[in-house]
């Protein structure tokens, strides 16, 4: 086998090996694999939310969100190391890439979740009539969002109000984990339905948590995201 064909070796059931010179040396790690993500602080006082305890919010932020930030940094470091090694099994690399996507989604969705808390829950801004136009009324949208959350209760995943850049329309999307959203969907509001987000306060009564979530939404944040998404669609 000539040197020009040494890049890929097929090993039967064992799969494919990436072989040859490293893509880049470890001392030249690009920003994509820098592993320098920093957690964002809470923008509200967790002791002042209605129906969501300080203990719950602090645990969620410290253990789940910051845990995902740290895990993402670790995975990026492993990817950098893998790219600097001459032989990496495709299954190993596939696992790293899946975990990169999983942790990236967790970090982003948790940041969207926490950033939209701390308000009084009173809907406002252009997002309100936009939702009314999309769903017949704002109440109809809220009922549909809550029904989607109920479908995830006792399981895991996210409910997202997103602006679909492709169709230029608002939709509520169901996500079974951190890695699912409509293609070109820009999340405007994210509701964490993993049990860690409510079990400490409500046990299995997930819908009481959803009610509390709505009482604490900062709709100004959601409205700013909506305007930003509309500008993106116009480009």
Order of helices and strands: EEHEHHHEEEHHH
Quote the average pLDDT.
Answer: 88
CATH class of the domain at 127-234: Alpha Beta
Class per helix and strand makeup: alpha+beta
Q: Based on CA inertia axes, which overall geometry fits?
A: globular
The total of beta strands comes to 6
**What would the CATH topology of the domain at 127-234 be?**
minor pseudopilin epsh fold
Please compute the radius of gyration using only Cα atoms. Answer: 21 Å
| Order of strands, widest sheet | 1-2-3
N-to-C CA distance: 50 Å
Number of helices, counting only DSSP H or I runs of 4 residues or more: 7
What is the CATH superfamily of the domain at 127-234?
Answer: Iron/manganese superoxide dismutase, C-terminal domain
Portion in beta strands: 5-15%
- Please estimate the helix content: 40-55%
Strand count, sense and closure of the main sheet? 3 strands, antiparallel
Spans of 5+ residues with little confidence (pLDDT < 50)? 1-20
CATH architecture of the domain at 127-234: 3-Layer(bab) Sandwich
């Amino acid at each position: 086998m000539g040197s020009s064909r040494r890049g890929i070796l097929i090993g039967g059931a064992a799969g494919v090996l990436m072989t040859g010179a490293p893509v880049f040396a470890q001392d030249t790690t690009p920003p994509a694999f820098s592993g320098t993500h920093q957690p964002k602080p809470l923008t509200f006082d967790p002791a002042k939310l209605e129906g969501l305890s300080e203990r719950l919010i602090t645990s969620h932020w410290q253990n789940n969100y910051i845990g995902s930030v740290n895990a993402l940094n670790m995975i990026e470091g492993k990817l950098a190391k893998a790219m600097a090694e001459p032989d990496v099994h495709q299954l190993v690399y596939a696992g790293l890439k899946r975990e990169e996507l999983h942790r990236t989604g967790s970090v982003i969705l948790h940041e969207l979740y926490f950033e939209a808390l701390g308000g009084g829950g009173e809907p406002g801004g252009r997002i309100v009539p936009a939702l009314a136009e999309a769903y017949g009324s704002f109440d109809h949208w809220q009922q549909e969002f809550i029904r989607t959350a109920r479908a995830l209760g006792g399981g895991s995943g996210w409910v997202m109000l997103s602006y679909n850049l492709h169709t230029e329309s608002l939709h509520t999307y169901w996500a079974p984990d951190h890695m699912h959203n409509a293609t070109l969907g820009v999340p405007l509001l994210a509701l964490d339905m993993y049990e860690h987000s409510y079990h400490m306060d409500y046990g299995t009564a997930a819908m009481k948590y959803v009610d509390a979530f709505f009482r604490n939404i900062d709709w100004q944040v959601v409205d700013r995201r909506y305007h930003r998404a509309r500008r993106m669609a116009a480009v």
